[in-house]
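Kindly review this record before class:
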Amino acid sequence: MAILLVPGFMADDTLWDDVVPGFACFGPVVHADLRHDTSVEAMARRVLETAPESFLLVGFSMGGYVARAIARQAPARVRALVLVATSTRGDTAALQKRKGAIGNAAPTIAFSGLSRTAVATSLHPKNRDNDALIERVRAMGTRLGGDVFRRQSLLDRPGDLERSGEIRCPTLVVAAAQDQLRSLAEAREMADAIPGATLAVIEDSGHMIPIEAPQRLVDVIVPWLAAHADA
């Protein structure tokens, strides 16, 4: 068995550093590469090209959209699915407007990483002055660079709530109670729509659960996967 981890917007493999040791019991950890493609479906196809034949699948935020596409494209290969701090809703009008501004900007403009304000918004209020956490998130974006920022910023994320019934593997939806980017209502909506899905809520964390509350995330995911991986 293996466990495949799919990161979120402008996040790299280091997003998972604090949870990987907890997942060791499920075999090799494989990291999805979302740097190259301009659609969720294309990202999913690329991941599947190099993924193990059979695997457990964990998707975070934007990676949750990709993980659901993976589960739809290759249902026989996904043993169980975990969706962390994500949604089935499409882009809002405000986000579409922001994408339009990015699309109209000169591609040669230097990219210096995500702003401190943008990163702080993704964190629990208690962590919004935590320089170490903020710089850890910013460093991921800086390593990925401006080309990836542009591609991922312009990525169309169509709502897929109506396709939830296509997901047939055991599914766990994990939400943060204080997530300012993805609401509990979105998590409940997703869990209700996916057949047989379970919802778990982690208290005292913002959107960046793998970094803000890694041990609590492990404590939720590992027992659930152990019980459902062979279902």
In short: Confidence is low (pLDDT under 50) at residues 100-104. The longest strand covers residues 78-84.
